[in-house]
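Long-time lurker. I teach an intro course on protein structure, and each term I like to show students one example going from raw sequence to a predicted 3D structure in token notation. This year I'd like something fresh instead of my usual example. Would anyone be willing to generate the tokens for the chain below so I can use it in lecture? Attribution to the forum is fine with me.
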Amino acid sequence: MARHLEGKHMEMKDVAYAFSFPLGSKDRKGLLEQLRNKGDFKHNTKVLEEGKGELVTWKQPSGKASVSDYLPCQYCYGMFAKKDLWQHQSSCKSKKASETDGKKRGRVQSLVARLLPIATSSSGSHEIFNNMRQDDVSFHIRRDSLICRYGDSLYAKNGHVKTKHQYIAQRMRELGRFMLVVKDMDTNVKSLEDVCAPSKCQLVVDAAKSLSKFSPSKNEFGKPSTAVKLGFSLKGAMEFLIGQTLMNEDDLGKNRANTFLELLEKNWKNYVSVSAHQTIKEKSWNKQDDIPLTKNVMTLRDHLRIVENEAREKLSQQLSLPAYKQLNEAVLAQVIIFNKR
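-- Reply from a regular --
Happy to contribute to a lecture. Here you go:
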């Protein structure tokens, strides 16, 4: 690589600077390694954006590996396995001495996720992507244009409220998990927009059932709330897609999306939502109420009265913040117990 850079790219400032150091010197080797990493990072970014090609990793995996198992180092731009990234960054040669790395592993992954390409997003929702757990779900979301744009629409509506950011991330991850199941069932599907066709309606229902742990023999869902939430997320994404086709004056796309949404609403009600709501209702019926024994309640009440009297006695003798706090807590606990009757 050094010979190639010297012969073809000496006009570049970084290359010329690297070759200004003596042959075999530590500085020269380090700078050439940085140039190689930056070139590999540019290649890897293109692979992730296009969804095809091979990643150039720092170390070749010994066995089968997934693209989503790798993240770039924020200092040297080398592509490392996620499980090894935290350890590498703690001693990365490209890290400046002033940059300390006292971050937890999960936080490191969240920070370097900013370097990964996203299909499309606003600056605000970009932060939500980066704060997600970096796994197969978030990896798919980054490459799924419709999920990203749907996330943008949710952010435009609720992004000004910080507490809603988690809600937005959850809606997007629901669709991301759903798409992982869909892609396992149909390898021709690559993104959420690919399933927005009338011919894919049954696939959507089957994938939702699989994700929600539907049991045909019992005719009930193992995770009924997942099915219900997924229905809202899918409908929201479809309505957003219809809006996009209207703005783009895409009559063919609009008709296809409308037909799919109409079919989805009918099939979803018959095959998913009714059974899911019924499962939730039955689980609430079968839920046991843990009612404490009367003697246990009386024991707790007597103890609280003792604590209350002791605190009152202390306060009558001398003003004391700990005693006042103790009295306050004892009285509050008794009020709560009284209201639980």
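Some talking points for your students: DSSP finds 14 helices and four strands in the chain. Residues 52 and 317 are 79 Å apart (CA to CA).
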